[in-house]
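Ticket #227: bound-state structure for adenosine-5'-triphosphate.
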Amino acid sequence: MAVVEASNLVREYRMGTETVRALDGASLTLEGGQFVAVVGPSGAGKSTLLHIVGALDTPTSGSIRVDGTDLSGLTDDEASQFRRTRVGFIFQFFNLVPTLTAWENVALPMLLDSKSLRKARPRAVELLERVGLGDRVAHRPAELSGGQMQRVAIARSLMMEPKILLADEPTGNLDSKTGADVLELLAEVAHDEPDRLVLMVTHDGGAAQVCDRVVTVRDGRIDGRHD
Ligand SMILES: Nc1ncnc2c1ncn2[C@@H]1O[C@H](COP(=O)(O)OP(=O)(O)OP(=O)(O)O)[C@@H](O)[C@H]1O
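RESOLUTION: The complex was predicted; output attached.
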């Protein structure tokens, strides 16, 4: 079963009397076990697409199913539960909590799910080992490099074992060597589990080399083949 099935997505934003069409009939089907890059000109609708796939935004029309769930039918509470438990998010500026250690940041999704942070420690440490940071579990974000902070964020995105990871410009704040290492790690993570999909919006020219598929968004539509 496809992890993402988007059909004819339209997203309009009202700006006073103007209407901006961020997505204009975007259709896309993505299977798991892949690392997919979303590229395209600035303003094309890439982030809007990613936000709809992550249930952070809802389309004006069209249908979207992610990991078997029809997102258009969710209440606000169900959408927030979906985001917390079924999707991992990775951002350009890492979004780590500065006062928490690396392992606490990784374990945080469990706390939000009413589980104790301490109980989640073994799994958080295991995930930090997985991303090459077994010797940094007690460091706070300020004591880590940019690349290390992004690795912590990747470990955190895996905490709830989601089938889909969404990354918005994950290398945008890293130098090219560190960025290449992070792309390599994301590719490994996508291939670790047979059904896992890593979907990444990027302007990084190195992405095409490590990604299994590159999807181009132009004027709110997916260019070319979309199945
Ligand atoms: N919340 C919003 N309110 C109004 N317009 C918006 C909003 N979000 C996005 N847009 C508009 O929708 C269009 C698509 O934006 P989006 O952020 O998806 O593009 P993008 O391809 O991710 O661009 P970039 O590469 O510059 O990040 C743009 O014209 C943008 O100005």
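RESOLUTION NOTES: The two ends are 13 Å apart (CA to CA).
TICKET STATUS: resolved
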